[in-house]
Specification:
Pfam families: SpoVR, SpoVR_C. The chain has 665 residues and is of the alpha+beta class. The chain is built from 29 helices and twelve strands.
Length: 665
């Protein structure tokens, strides 16, 4: 009689066997569609294992800490009480590792597999992921980090609770890195040895404690620290706060009530957590792009190429509806819609450029000379490509560039199940025509929305390098692959901020019914306030600039010439939660060892002004005020700052240009 573990293992092996063909064919289809994914290893896991993986961020081993238990509990409750369902999890690695929940239906498994292949393509080809490592081995890295930190916790000379508390301190700053720079390891053990030498020399002099306190007190000792470069340090604000603390920070020792050198385990733990922050940064920076990309190609493969069989399609449609219609901000929906808009806009521009080269057609007379209904009909895919079956193979020409001659020969010999996988006999060009976006039912109005202003703009940048005698000749020259080619170009270089900044348009906002909403003091509730693209864009991009977290930099490591740390919040119109900021400063104090300060800007509203504005049915204008929050190890104080001290932190407009300079050259 087999044990429960043996039964479970056999069950997973059976499911894995059933999935061998879908995995193989999904990868082949993805490549035929122009994707280039990392190899993917698929793992079958049960319900509890899936929740553990989600809690661990997609990996099987992470460093010991209470945060993982909290995330596991949250995931379980979300599934149990809120109706959430775990479909998949995949990590950025080479090879990538994807985990499939054994209890999911076959339609769900296929949807996950196609979704994962697109993610693996994004991981491999998006250059932001390359800022961490060109060839990541993340699973081994994170397992090594887990072993190292666990060894510190097991060390009899190190207090386990102290290690966990240290991790808590560092995690408060896990997003305070410079995610736009390539990751580099911080070498060296800091620059405090000279200060320790002075303290040792004073000890050897045998001075009384009274003299030490009166003449050579802690403030005097700190003042002996070498002046970094003879001026302000750092010379420019440092965004990688974790790196700065790793190099220049000290730990606060409660017994001696002074700053002391980091222990080796403290410095190493900080650096390991910093490395993990850089590894996960690209995933946070490309959430909308990445999930939208995967949702787009999943839908293409499962729905339009029939990867979901007839008896699986309703299950798949339900799966897709759950993902795309989940409440709150939905990166899957926004991303998929924006990729589709880019595809349509690119294809429409390609058609317009061809038609504007027809003899006698200009942007001024375009709508008089061109019948877009006829153009739409002419762009329909060749019937031989649109409907492929074993009975229709004779209609395909092996010499046609849209047809894969070798696969066509195999299909005619009965070696390819063309009824199940019709895409196998088509090339990339053939699939581009088969799935040409402008003729799809859901996009049929897109071509006809060509405005006179769009045509003028297109014509302005056209080179008169080709002319066509008539519309038929022009349409024969249309590149049906332009949309997909452009999508892959964008996938390589953008992150969410630049993606939204460049491609979110008024047409997209109107078409997909996006708007902003605000709390209004005049009505004392939330109201829709704008459908203007610039307002929608700013609202969206605030959620992605620095992962939607406050941007904080080290401004001065010797503030007021007292070796205090001064952090500066780069204010973008959104106030800090000062209560949380004070709690974070208490954590940072443990990493700096001396008092820490934070400059920021806050908004102040007078109750009288609010009431007057409400009566006049308008919004009050808040006063922006500079604030300095300081924690000295004992208490938190807050004071106002002159506007001159914080004016450089106030953005006149939000700076979304986050591409590295060399990418813009």
């Amino acid at each position: 009689m087999s044990s429960d573990s043996d039964t479970e293992r056999l069950q997973k092996q059976r499911i894995a066997g059933e999935l061998e063909e879908p995995v193989r064919e999904a990868n082949a289809l993805a490549r035929r569609l122009g994707l280039d994914p990392f190899p993917v290893k698929y793992w079958i896991v049960d319900y509890d294992e899936m929740n553990e993986l989600i809690a661990y961020g997609g990996f099987q081993e992470r460093y010991p800490h209470w945060r993982w238990g909290m995330q596991y509990d949250r995931q379980q409750k979300q599934t149990q009480f809120l109706g959430g369902k775990a479909f998949e999890i995949v990590n950025n690695d080479n090879p990538s590792h994807a985990f499939l929940q054994e209890s999911n239906a076959m339609a769900d498994q296929k949807a996950v597999i196609t979704h994962v292949e697109a993610h693996a393509d994004f991981f491999k080809n998006n250059q932001w992921f390359g800022l961490f490592a060109d060839d990541p081995n993340a699973a081994a890295m994170l397992e090594g980090h887990a072993d190292t930190i666990e060894s510190y916790m097991d060390d009899p000379e190190v207090d386990r609770e102290a290690v966990e508390a240290w991790i808590d301190n560092v995690l408060c700053l896990e997003d305070c890195i410079d995610q736009h720079r390539p990751f580099t390891t911080i070498e060296g053990d800091g620059d405090h040895a000279e200060l320790d030498d002075i303290a040792d020399q004073l000890d050897s002099l045998g001075l009384s404690e009274e003299v030490r306190q009166q003449v050579f007190d802690e403030e005097w000792l700190e003042a002996q620290r070498p002046d970094e470069g003879g001026g302000k340090f750092p010379e420019e604000p440092e965004l990688d706060v974790l790196a700065f603390l790793r190099t220049h920070g000290m730990a606060y020792d409660e017994e001696s009530e002074r700053a002391v050198e980091y222990d080796d385990w403290q410095r190493e733990t900080l650096e390991l957590l910093r490395r993990e922050s850089y590894y996960f940064a690209p995933q946070k920076m490309t959430k909308v792009m990445n999930e939208g990309w995967a949702a787009y190609w999943e839908s293409m493969m499962m729905g339009e190429e029939g990867f979901a069989e007839a008896d699986e399609f309703l299950d798949y449609a339900d799966h897709q509806a759950q993902v795309l219609n989940s409440p709150g901000f939905n990166p899957y929906k926004l991303g998929k819609e924006l990729w589709e808009y880019i595809e349509n806009a690119t294809n429409r521009r390609e058609v317009a450029e061809r038609l504007l080269r027809v003899e006698g057609v200009t942007w001024r007379n375009f709508h008089d000379r061109i019948d877009l209904d006829e153009v739409q009909a002419a762009l329909e895919p060749d019937a031989a490509l649109d409907s492929i079956s074993a009975d229709s193979l004779d209609a395909l020409d092996p010499d046609d560039s849209r047809v894969d001659a070798d696969e066509l020969e195999r299909a005619r010999a009965g070696e390819v199940d063309v009824d199940r996988y019709p895409w196998k006999v088509l090339t990339y060009e053939g699939l581009c025509e088969r799935h040409y976006s402008l003729v799809k039912r859901q996009h049929r109005g897109f071509l006809k929305r060509l405005a006179q202003s769009d045509l003028e703009r297109i014509a302005r940048y056209m080179f008169d390098d080709a002319r066509y005698a008539d519309v038929e000749e022009a349409l024969a020259d249309v590149d049906r692959c332009a949309g997909w080619d452009r999508m892959r170009e964008i996938r390589e270089s953008h992150n969410d901020v630049t993606f939204l900044d460049e491609f979110l348009s008024q047409e997209f906002v109107d078409q997909n019914h996006y708007f902003t909403y605000e709390f209004t003091h005049s009505t004392r509730d939330y109201r829709a306030t704008s459908t203007d693209v610039e307002d929608v864009k700013k609202k969206l991009m605030l959620q992605f600039t620095n992962f939607g977290k406050p941007t904080v930099a080290v401004e001065d490591a010797n503030y007021n010439n007292r070796n205090e740390l001064l952090l500066a919040h780069q204010y973008n119109g959104v106030m800090l939660d000062l209560k949380q900021a004070k709690q974070v400063l208490e954590r940072v104090f443990e990493l700096w060892g001396r008092p820490v300060n934070l400059k920021t800007i806050t908004k102040r509203l007078d109750d009288h002004d609010v009431e007057v504005a409400r009566r006049r049915d308008r919004e009050p204008v808040p006063e922006e005020v500079g604030v300095l929050v300081r924690y000295d190890g004992d208490r938190v104080t807050t004071e106002e700052l002159a506007w001159d001290d914080v004016e450089h932190l106030a953005a006149t407009d939000i700076d979304y240009d986050t591409k590295p300079d060399d990418w813009l050259a």
